[in-house]
User: Fold this.
Amino acid sequence: MRARIFKLIGLAPLVLILSCATPVEQQVPSSVDIPAETKVVPLEVITPELTAEPPSSADITESQSGTGSSNNEKSDQANNLSSDDGTPAAWGHLVATVWEEEPRLPILNYHQFSPETAKFSTAMKTRLPDLQAHLQSLYDSGYSLVSLESWLEGDLRVPEGRRPLIITMDDLFYNNQLTLTEGGDPDPGSGIGVMWEFSQAHPDFGFQLALFATLGDKLYANPSFPTWEDKLGEAIAWGFDHGAVTYNHFYTHPHLDQIEPRHIVWNARKNDEYLRSLLKRVGRDDIIPSLSNIFALPYSVWPTKPIGVQLLLEYENPEGLPLQAVMESDFISRAKFLPPPYAADFDPLHILRIIADHNAIDFLVENSGQFPTAVHCEFENLDQTRIDDRAFLAGEIRQALKQGRCPEGVYSLGGKVFTASSSGVHLIFPEEGGG
Assistant:
């Protein structure tokens, strides 16, 4: 499931207030205490590809001891070896993403889109031909899309030789952001339609989007059109099915520094409830249990009253999930890039996104070398029943380094993150006791 609970611990004063449309600086009173760090419930185990041919007896013994892995060829189906309790044992193949430098990644933030007849793009509305050019330039510079939520949860996977990039979008849902055709595909005349078509032509670029919806203010269509809510619900459901996940941007897109604290909670709750009603309307109740709790601040502005900040941070979604992250926004001139969740400066309450104008794209293209690429290391014929055993995985990594098959670095493997060097292999995420 996508939903993960960030346990908010520690206290530190908040100082950073920005604007969504026209970023501005604003300081929250020093008397307001905000958690500075978070911990994450561990990821679900990544299901390995299963192999048809079992390893040899010697390989089985070595693998089960946690001291190595065999070099047998991979195949595509499960074998029928039995485990100690007599049940069939599945042997799998995992690919680790290895970072030889600490990864940091940019987050781009789009809003609306306009057709090519528009004279120029702005910070709030991007011409579709310019969007296409953005995607091509980013792809040519080695970037690939990763899931916002997966990265926050410690899943640092990316195609080999590629640089991770997150794309978010605010003020959903307008027709120019996502419209489905009669066949149920994204209309290429919408922004997400352009992104979808690009991802189909460039599979290694991927299709992962974080969509922040303001469902009571940014109307999908003319309310007089009798089936517009059905169309909206279908578009939202399509997104969840394909990697374009909807999150909370508050129901009326309010200035959180200008409304009463109780209205902050109402805005968040109303947006959540309406999202769920739209999914129920189109028969997609199955999506609801996996819904997350991540905010994007309208205008990138925090509440100014301490009670307002407290209520925001304590907000739980209708399923009781605590707040996971808060997204802010600014121009490239004041950009900060997202570190991995094990880094000392990782702060899920202040995730800064870059407004996706031409200056931002030019910077990311011209400075792509600042963002590391990943390599892959393969682990074959692993006992699937031990994939969640951190000591077992550490032993496999240690053996791979000893054999010279894989480099030193940070390993994202089996839903866990390890550091690996000649001095040892250590789990760094999730923390001990976290799963």
